[in-house]
Specification:
- With 214 residues, this protein is mostly beta strands.
- The chain has one domain: Ribonuclease Z/Hydroxyacylglutathione hydrolase-like (Metallo-beta-lactamase, Chain A, 4-Layer Sandwich).
- 10% of the residues lie in helices and 36% in strands.
- The protein contains three helices and 14 strands.
- Strand 9, helix 1 and strand 10 form a beta-alpha-beta unit.
- The chain is globular.
- The chain starts with a strand and ends with a strand.
Length: 214
Amino acid sequence: MVKVKWWGHATFEIKGSKLTIITDPHGGSVGLPNPKCSGDIILVSHDHFDHYSKVEDVCKGGAEKVLWMTGTKTVKGIPIKGIQVFHDESKGSQRGKNVIYTFEMDGIKFCHLGDLGHVPSESQIREIGEVDVLFIPIGGVFTIDASGATEVADLIKPKIVIPMHYKTPGLSLGLGDIKAFTKGKPRVKEIKSSEVEITKSNLPKETEIWVLKL
């Protein structure tokens, strides 16, 4: 079993049986409270302030920081792959590079898209491979929007889609809201919590969208 807790924006606490991974810590830089969590591995997709802030606050003793890494590396027993993509639709000329991370924990394959700004190429989709849980930005402005996120999710075909990087109460960035992404879609689950438990056995057969609540 893996516990996934959303701390807002692109920050997730992914707690397995042995280790905890934290993604893209915002450090309270976007109007949200500084995440009160700590991890053994900290994954950072790129160096913008809202994804790479107060990193030490979320590090356990001996934590390893994986900063915009590309390629494959085993960190504390967890196989992690970093795939370089871009923060915009013009090959990074506007907002630079971004890294997609895939990793497996307790038999569940996760993919965090960071600040993906374009639809990945066929080769990048192949590099991502099979995914159980996909963390996807949907808010537009700085990333793909609801329409782009729909296309990306359809290409990756995960079991569970967890939206991130969109308008939430207190967020200081002017992003799109969740309804633009979920409207008209089947199999949308409103989770009445910021935290959810995922096991291999409770993965849906068809893709579901799980909307967490801060």
